[in-house]
Fold each of these.
Amino acid sequence: MLTDDPPLKQAYKVSLQPSGLQFETDPAMSLLNSALLAQIRLPSSCRNGTCRTCLCKLKSGEISYQIDWPGLTREEKAEGYLLPCVAVAQSDLVIDAPDAVSLK
Ligand code: FES
């Protein structure tokens, strides 16, 4: 059956280092909120991409941003830094997030 609905976006697996914690992304949510849904807390404050409290580093994978100007310099982006409060996964990810905490 044909519909006008856009194709469903895919969920991806995120692995956090060095903890080894893992979660699946909800395609409609930021990485920060997907992690929270899986009871994993990452540092955060503003949750809108400006304060940089959530700053962590992408080791592998592709992301995109929900906002046009996340608070990162071009150099930081090139080095792999990301702001999970406004980022969504575009592939499976490995993220260096030493302050991730399991809430389970
Ligand atoms: S929580 Fe402020 S930039 Fe992510």
Note: Residues 44-47, 49-54, 71, 83, 85 surround FE2/S2 (inorganic) cluster (CB under 6 Å).
Amino acid sequence: MLMAKTQEHRSDYLTARRLAKILALDDFEGVARRHLPRPLFGYIAGASETNASLRDNRNAFAEFGFRPHTLRDVSLRSTATTILGTRYAAPFGIAPMGISALMAYRGDIVLARAAAEADIPMIMSGSSLIPLEEVAKAAPHSWFQAYLPGEPDRIDALLDRVAAAGFGTLLLTVDVAILPNRENNVRAGFSTPLRPSLRLAWQGLTHPSWTVGTFARTLLNHGMPHFENSYATRGAPIIARSVSRDFGKRDHLNWEHLEQIRRRWKGRLVVKGIMRADDALRAAEYGVDGIIVSNHGGRQLDGTLAPLRVLPRIAEAAGDKTTVMLDGGVRRGTDVLKALALGAKFVFVGRPFLYAAAVGGHAGVMKAANILSEEIWRDMALLGINSIEELTTDYIERLRGD
Ligand SMILES: Cc1cc2nc3c(=O)[nH]c(=O)nc-3n(C[C@H](O)[C@H](O)[C@H](O)COP(=O)(O)O)c2cc1C
């Protein structure tokens, strides 16, 4: 008992020390690089092939500048905003990220609970290692993201399970027809399932705070993690010598399945991974409540344009027909405000939140959410606005040619 308490205090102390030096979302990356075994860090940080889209996601933000208003009373400003009928404290949420519970102890629950406390939405990934019912219980307002195959029976079975767990918002990711080419994962020794090897064991030995605080603790308290939510039934374990994951007929998924999903799913439906105005309009015709303009953080088709570049066209075409959101490369309050000025109603942030959960658990995710909220709040004053709804293209200008 005493040993457990001492251990807990030591880990609280280490967490506080790690977090004390973090001033911006990007600061989490360096701390996570040291804390996580190389294959796991590489899985989060990397993208596909040459990482061209990953880089462009960031570069695109630098191509826009602000035109602030001055001499306006901004003392009553608020970062609160409403998305899909719910009012949140800030115009950003946590993007869905697979195998979070391997990066942070009970990762999905940590992210979901901290998001609920910060009053922002969190999207639970379908490629996750904790049964979705447990996350819904811990944080009932989380959203659920599904990777669905083009197989009607499996679609219905998963949707019924998600609905029975009480999720109100379903997100369908549509940019994953097949597995991408992530050479960096192969080089870093990452695969799902992870294959036991001397190299992997060495990574465990040389990253003891992850091995003890996340991995061993998970094994001890919950057993070997499995993919729990890809389908209605349990999937492969996260470490296995010869088991393969079942990805189903993802490459069969098409608009007819979206129609089927819309008929069966009674809650709010969001499609993630739309990059074209015509697809956005078609999704709206099929009755989706919102879309996320996204290239999956550069992790699917390398060379896909940055979401910020296609956002204005999509937002203009979509008008009021569906709610347009964006993710990819959002790291600063100024990035959030740029995306909103260019037509997004809300944005999502991926990697920094997973790093934050890995290195700081609940406190880490709260710190990340606070940093971004405070940046937005400060930037709003300097831009001359009191509410998120005031943002329009009037506040922003492209620096270089179109
Ligand atoms: C480690 C990791 C795992 C991810 N897993 C999923 C997933 O399971 N489902 C999904 O729709 N998107 C997934 N994504 C993509 C994110 O939801 C999001 O689109 C992307 O990370 C946004 O870019 P950012 O990391 O630059 O903020 C993942 C991204 C990362 C970094």
Note: The pocket of flavin mononucleotide is lined by residues 43-44, 57, 95-98, 125, 127, 145, 173, 272, 294, 296-297, 299, 327-330, 349-351, 354 (CB under 6 Å).
